[in-house]
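Figure 6 in text form: structure in, sequence out.
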């Protein structure tokens, strides 16, 4: 399961870029987190971007490969973020900004998937408090 930043990097890099290649190679066994879908929609500010995101999400929906956080995952995310805020007071303000990442990680855990992300820092912080499979990769940033 890919984090939002992998899809964004693939769109920026184009067909020949490493992020697009990574997505293409993993396509037959990839699931889309509904939280990633929402983040992509929120970031699609022009008509071309919006159509691209809608088409991508529709493909995953047709294949039955969209993963939605369960009530348990929502509760676990709240517990994890509260634990981070209690145990690491310096991260209190950051913890509230980790909702989406926590939900993405817990959605992946629901189906036994690995999160692939360029956001090493936030996901490794979460992984100190909850188990999930993680692969971090370099992602070109603008």
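Output sequence:
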């Amino acid at each position: 399961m890919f984090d939002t930043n992998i899809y964004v990097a693939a769109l920026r890099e184009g067909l020949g870029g490493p992020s697009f290649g990574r997505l293409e190679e993993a396509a037959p066994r990839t699931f889309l987190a509904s939280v990633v879908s929402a983040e992509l929609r929120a970031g699609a500010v022009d008509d071309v971007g919006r159509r691209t995101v809608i088409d991508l999400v529709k493909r995953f929906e047709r294949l039955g490969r969209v993963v939605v956080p369960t009530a348990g995952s929502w509760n676990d995310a709240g517990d994890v973020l509260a634990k981070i805020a209690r145990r690491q007071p310096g991260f209190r303000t950051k913890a509230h900004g980790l909702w989406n990442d926590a939900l993405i990680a817990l959605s992946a855990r629901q189906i036994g998937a690995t999160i692939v992300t360029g956001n090493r820092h936030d996901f490794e912080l979460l992984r100190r408090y909850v188990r999930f499979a993680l692969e971090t990769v370099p992602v070109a940033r603008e």
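Caption detail: The chain has a mean pLDDT of 91.
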